[in-house]
Amino acid sequence: MQQSTIVPFPGTEDRFGGQGARRVYAFAKRSFDILFALAFILMTLPVWIAIAVAIKLSSPGPVFFAQPRVGRNAQVFRCLKFRTMRPDAEAMLKDSALAAEFEKSWKLQNDPRITPIGRILRKTSLDELPQLLNVLKGEMSVVGPRPVQVRELAERFGPWGPTVASVRPGLTSLWSVSGRSALSYPERVRLEVEYVRRRSFWFDLKLVLLTVPAVIKGSGAV
Description:
By secondary structure, this protein is mainly α. It has one domain (4-8, 18-216). The chain has helices at 19-58, 89-92, 96-105, 116-124, 131-136, 150-157, 161-164, 185-198, 201-217; strands at residues 4-5, 64-70, 75-82, 141-143, 170-172. The strands form 2 sheets. It has a 3-stranded antiparallel beta sheet. The protein has a two-stranded parallel ribbon with strand order 4-5.
């Protein structure tokens, strides 16, 4: 899948620290990303197959869904997920009531576009398993701010957009383990920015461990 580029946000800066520390962290983080993604894909391969079969049998359309999201340094990439919506999902969003709710938080609490299988996948976060492929490609990391759309970053993150776009987006994040969609969008922005400023290898490991109970509880998943 080919990447495209948007104009980089002005003022993007690396907030991690000295050059030596940045290099050590970057090497450790990327090494962990590759090993984690490979191991998790191999361990969950039967789950991938079962999900693919369930999607194909339950509704027409492709197994995977890819949507442009903003990556590190404002690079736009195609973020992968298992398809959880009906094929006419985009057309349904043109409904004025749905569109108004979506504009508030970029999510719908009782989204009529989601298939029955899709609701299970979203509640368990299994729909995001294909993003492990994005991690292997270097477009995402295991831990980082959750990937957002171009317009979403510009409109919702405002002056904090450069901070969030200065690192790779992650499979999980500080926001993911703090309530996700149960939080307001300004609170999400605060948590994503807080991660960028606090990030370290040990903080990343802590968030990976906290993700397990968050996924089991389904906290804030919609």
